[in-house]
Amino acid sequence: MLTRRAWLGSSLLATTGCSTEKRDAGWPAAWDRILIEKAASAEAPRFDEQESLVTRLFPPGYRYHTRLREGRVHDLRASAEYALALLEIGAPAGRARAERTLNRVCALQDTDPASKWYGIWGYYLEEPPPKMDTADWNWADFLGGTLLLIDIRHGDRLDVGLRARVRAAIRHAALSVQHRNVEAGYTNIAVKGTFVCAAAAERLGLEDLAAYARERMSRVAAYIAESGSFAEYNSPVYARVTLTDLTRMRMYLHPGAVRDAAARIESRLWLHLARHWDGYRRQFAGPMSRCYETDLGEPFWLEKALGGRLGLANPALRGQYGDLDTAIHDLRCPEALAPDFLRPKPAFHREIFRVSPAPSRPVQGATLVGPDYSLGTVNQGDFWVQSRPLLAYFGGPARPASFIRLRLVKDGYDFSSGLLWTVQQGGNVLALVNFRSPGGDRHPSLDPIKGGEFQCGRLFLELSFEGLGEGFSFRKVDDRGSIAGGGIQADFQLRGGRFGSRPLHLGGSATRRSATYTVDFLPPGAASRVMWALTGAAWCVFTLTLSGQPLDALAWPCEVEATADRVHATWETPAGLLEVSGLSKAATIEDHRKSFGERINSQDIPLARLEESKP
Fold first, then answer.
1. What residues form DSSP beta bridges with 546?
2. Continuous segment of H or E residues that includes residue 98
3. Domain shared by 457 and 517, yes or no
4. φ, ψ of residue 482 in degrees (nearest 5)
5. Residue 306: how many CB atoms within 10 A of its CB?
6. What's the CA gap between 125 and 12, in Å, rounded?
7. Which residues pair with 508 in a beta bridge?
8. CA distance 256 to 519
9. Which helix (H) or strand (E) is 403 found in, with range?
10. Of the candidates 499, 390, 493, 502, which has an alpha carbon nearest to the alpha carbon of residue 434?
11. Which of 108, 422, 451, 536 has its CA 20 to 30 A from that of 93?
């Protein structure tokens, strides 16, 4: 599997789990080297010789986990990855720098077994774990995995004393992962930590840790089997993280239960991604549980997995950035699924992501892909900054992408206590927005709203259209908005809503290439104190229709009935009668889930598993 990197030397072919099998010539070995060299060259100007660490310019603004807000910092994870890139290149000067960096990184790990932060690192030299807003235990998984790659791929060429320190750091990280014992539904970390424990156990001879890794992998597989899919559903960034660690298991672990389960989960994850691929625009269609950038950009990892056939990314011709993970991992899309990525086709897909105990409905997504647009929603979603509970793409595959995104914004940042409940049939969405309490402000758990009270200057729902192109039509009449341009027709209507005693209304504005519709729960003005216990009504219902042809959704009647406790909405569309119901005031997430109802043509929406077999 490593012959594409023959320039690294034949000694790498002896690595556990590797073979000499060749890949499609559409991804030549030279591209791996280009990605590695670009990754290293991008970090070289940022390297601090005095500290032997890579620096970052930290921007202003909120970042969860850290208290730092602005300035230059020394990034420990980036430093470890830079050391790995230098070792991959193999130049003597680079190797010396990598060894200095690794000594520094290992020295900054908390190695006291009695410590609350045992086995982890801070994000930055300037902020060790005790000084962080909330320490990130995932750093044992991430840095532990990078150090394992260094030990596996380059350990026999490291200074003896340094290799001992690297292996000690791996052991501390693996024991931290074991002690934390993250839940199986935290997909990317559940898989990543399993690789750390399994690989550390094999390389360090820790049988107790090996037994834990087998048990943990069994739990992950059982959790996926329960729904047939992934709790961290359709996340471009975290699906890649998960696939990378499943690939590491295939490449580096000895044959056995962990590697066998990893292979089955890897196949299931590729199927999951294939079912959400919008081949017309070469994006993953919505909905997405976690997303950093709405535009997929030039995904080297996906291009490599498809043998260079996707036509999105060519390291030799495009971009100035590297991609170390893509270069050193044997990413492979199953050939049977390759046509789903390479040949665009229309489809409508439902998929259960998480099961729920009765009477709550399972978390299920709906995705429509067609020549003019794709539209995806999740029936139960939230508005955390990483969430994409309603997302559409339109136009062609050009970058930057043209898309439609729904957000709930409080004082300039996405509001985690907002909830979205949807019913989608084809290009039609009926949705209810309400609020949870207790809940989070900027983060669901790390930034909790205390006592159900918070200060707020403005709180609003926003539906934005990006990349419409010049000359599009924008309209807003009363509580109805319509867009025509970019190859799509869109109709967005506020069907009802209140916040306290205030009825809600639709606002809107447009620029040369974009448009936005807003619903103000709290209009802009002097900051006021919101107390959920006294607010009462806090909800809105809207409808959205997308089409490639002219439409008149105004003629489709929608009825909304609201009481002090509940909201029920019905919408008659050519695709069927859509119904959604839920609570009309802030409540616990458990109460919201029990009260949520979704129907089409007076029938419960069918529940669809991605695949019936167990991974």
1. 490
2. helix 92-107
3. yes
4. -145, 145
5. 23
6. 32
7. 517
8. 55
9. strand 402-410
10. 499
11. 108
Question: Could you report the per-residue pLDDT of 264-302, keeping only the tens digit for each?
Answer: 999 999 999 999 999 999 999 999 999 999 999 999 999
Q: pLDDT over 70 for what percent of the chain? A: 95
**Mean pLDDT calculated for residue range 231-238:** 96
| Burial (CB count <10 Å: 0-12, 13-18, 19+), residue 398 | exposed
What is the distance between the alpha carbons of residues 312 and 310, in angstroms, rounded to a whole number? 6
Q: Say how far apart CA 148 and CA 360 lie, in whole Å.
A: 42
> How many CB atoms are closer than 10 A to CB 464?
15
| Residue type at position 27 | W
Closest CA to 532 of 598, 437, 422: 437
Residue in 257, 503, 234 with CA at minimum distance from that of residue 364: 234
The backbone region for 458, taken as left when phi is positive above 0, alpha when psi lies in -120 to 50, beta otherwise, is beta
CA 103 to chain centre: 32
39 phi and psi angles, rounded to 5 deg: -60, -45
Is the same domain home to 437 and 367?
yes
**Is 248 in contact with 262 (CB distance < 8 Å)?**
no
Residues contacting residue 161 through CB under 8 Å, at least 6 positions apart: none
Provide the strand spans (E) within 36-128.
47-48, 53-58, 71-75
Q: Are residues 340 and 350 in the same domain?
A: no
* 339 lies in the same domain as 352: no
What is the rounded distance in angstroms from the CA atom of residue 284 to the CA atom of residue 376? 10
Tens digits of per-residue pLDDT, 536-591? 999 999 999 999 988 876 779 999 999 999 999 999 999 999 999 999 999 999 99
Q: How far apart are CA 282 and CA 50, in angstroms?
A: 44
| C-alpha span between 348 and 369 (Å, rounded) | 6
Whole-angstrom distance, CA of residue 575 vs CA of residue 424: 10
Q: Tokens 């409808």 correspond to what residue? A: 543
pLDDT for 25 equals 66
In a domain, 612, yes or no: no
Q: Whole-angstrom Cα distance, residue 149 to residue 541?
A: 50
**Whether residue 13 has pLDDT greater than 60:** no
In a domain, 383, yes or no: yes
pLDDT at 15: 31
Indicate the residue among 311, 344, 377 that finishes a domain: 344
Strand, coil or helix: 22 = coil
Higher pLDDT, 15 or 110: 110
The whole-angstrom separation of Cα 256 and Cα 174 is 19
The upper half-sphere exposure of residue 71, i.e. CA atoms within 13 Å in the direction of its Cβ, equals 10
> What is the tally of structural domains in the chain?
3
Phi and psi dihedrals of 228, rounded to 5? Answer: 90, -5
> At 107, which CATH number?
1.50.10.10
Q: Give dist(CA 456, CA 438) in Å, integer.
A: 16
Q: State both tokens at 213.
A: 């890794």
DSSP conformation letters of 248-315: HHHHHSPSSHHHHHHHHHHHHHHHHHHHTEETTTTEEPSPBSS-S-SS----HHHHHHTTT-S-S--T
Q: How far apart are CA 368 and CA 186, in angstroms?
A: 27
Region label for 73, one of left (φ > 0), alpha (ψ between -120 and 50) or beta (otherwise): beta
pLDDT confidence of residue 163: 98
Report CA-CA distances (Å) from 388 to 375, 439, 462, 483, 590: 11, 18, 13, 21, 21
Is residue 615 one of the residues assigned to a domain?
Answer: no
Backbone φ and ψ for 541, nearest 5 degrees, come out as -120, 135
